[in-house]
Amino acid sequence: MEFEKYLNLSKNNWPDFNIKWNLKLKDSLSSDNFNDTEFVKEFFSRGFLIGLINLNDLINNMHSFHQEKLKENLPVKELEDVKIAKIIYSCVTNKELLPPYITFCLGAFSIKDGWHRLRICSEIKEEKIPILISKDEKETFNKKINNIEWL
User: How far is CA 82 from each of CA 1, 4, 12, 120, 135, rounded to the nearest angstrom?
Assistant: First the structure.
């Protein structure tokens, strides 16, 4: 498989790439942890929004266990190499990625889906990223983080 050439690469050996985000949510409904049916049930029953957010603001407002994992410079091999390699391959071949799905739980933001995408964004020092949230959490996000640009 094509993505295998990106397995077990240290971050220093990653190719140069930019992340293209699917902000229309059309061609690719499902994501890492959802099949199409689950995705439609989860998002379309509650409604969803996409916001452009500063990555550091998001990380600083996450549960501490998420913060540690995203701030540490863990070797990629300690993560799930196949998912990281597939995401890198998708970026190199200009495929669009679904924004990470973030929710508010127990007083902080939590990654519901998109851990590996966030990890890569953190590693390549992305400043702003899009996130997917449930419509009913918009007010909470606005209270916790300034300067979210809702798309």
Answer: 11, 8, 17, 13, 32
Blockwise average pLDDT, block size 10, the chain, 151 residues: 88 92 65 57 70 94 75 56 90 93 91 90 94 93 93 90
The pair of three-digit structure tokens given for residue 94, joined into one six-digit string: 């200009």
Give the SS3 label for residue 136. Answer: helix
Strand segments, DSSP code E, in the chain are 20-21, 48-54, 96-97, 101-105, 108-113, 128-134, 149-150
27, two tokens:
């061609």
CA dist 148 and 114 (Å) reads 19
Report the predicted TM-score, pTM, of the whole model to 2 decimal places.
Answer: 0.82
Domain ranges in the chain are: 2-150
Instruction: For 76-113, give the DSSP string.
Output: GGGS-HHHHHHHHHHHHTT-EEPPPEEEEETTEEEEEE
